[in-house]
Amino acid sequence: MITDETLAWRLRQYRVQARMKQEDIAKILGMNATAITKIESNQRKVSAREVSLFATAYNVPIEVLLGKDGQPAEPVNLELKRFYLERTLDPVGISGTGVIAEGVVFSTGKVVLQWLTEYQSIGIYDSISDVLSIHGHNGTTSVVVIDVDQEDSEEG
User: Fold this and answer.
1) 72 φ, ψ to 5°?
2) What is the pTM of this model?
3) Whether 154 contacts 16, CB under 8 Å
4) Within the chain, which residue ranges are assigned CATH 1.10.260.40?
5) Is there a contact between 51 and 62 (Cβ–Cβ < 8 Å)?
6) Are 33 and 156 in contact (CB under 8 A)?
7) How far is 78 from 59, CA to CA, in rounded Å?
8) How far apart are alpha carbons 67 and 69 in whole angstroms?
């Protein structure tokens, strides 16, 4: 049996990344949602068979869940945050107002931004702060995050 806290954390991260509720993965695995809650909070042991079922459900090798030496690997942040840029005033006269771009913040903090205006392009930035420094136009552009801590709302 595996009881490591890191495995519990990783199982939850893969569920959240898959945008599943605990009830969803429970149905897939033939378990009840209470068992998933206990597994993800490290209050219940996970059998080797269950690790295999989780790996199949999340489409990841068992080795990824457990680490190469059979021990759970260190936690990794698998979450992406989607956002859009909303501009109230266009001081340059090119981008317009309203929703002007959409983007993603990776777990590393790097950002990819796609412009939705007439002059469509894609840019890569080191941080969301860099995006605002370059395109914020003294507060006339704001970042609106779409994915706000979904973990809490999916606990069901």
Assistant:
1) -60, 135
2) 0.49
3) yes
4) 5-66
5) yes
6) yes
7) 14
8) 6
Q: Please give the DSSP secondary-structure letter assigned to residue 73.
A: P
The pLDDT of residue 147: 74
Is 117 within 8 Å of 93 (Cβ atoms)?
Answer: no
Quick check: 66 and 94 in contact, CB under 8 A? no
How high does pLDDT run on average in the chain?
83
* Calpha distance 122→114 (Å, rounded): 4
What single DSSP character describes residue 69? T
Task: Report CA-CA distances (Å) from 26 to 39, 128, 131.
Answer: 11, 36, 40
Of the candidates 19, 70, 29, 76, the one whose C-alpha atom is nearest the C-alpha of residue 49 is 29
pLDDT of 153: 41
Contact 142, 89 (CB under 8 A): no
5-66 architecture in CATH? Answer: Orthogonal Bundle (1.10)
pLDDT in tens, 56-96: 888 888 887 886 655 555 555 567 889 999 999 988 888 88
Residue 151's pLDDT is: 45
DSSP state of 150: H
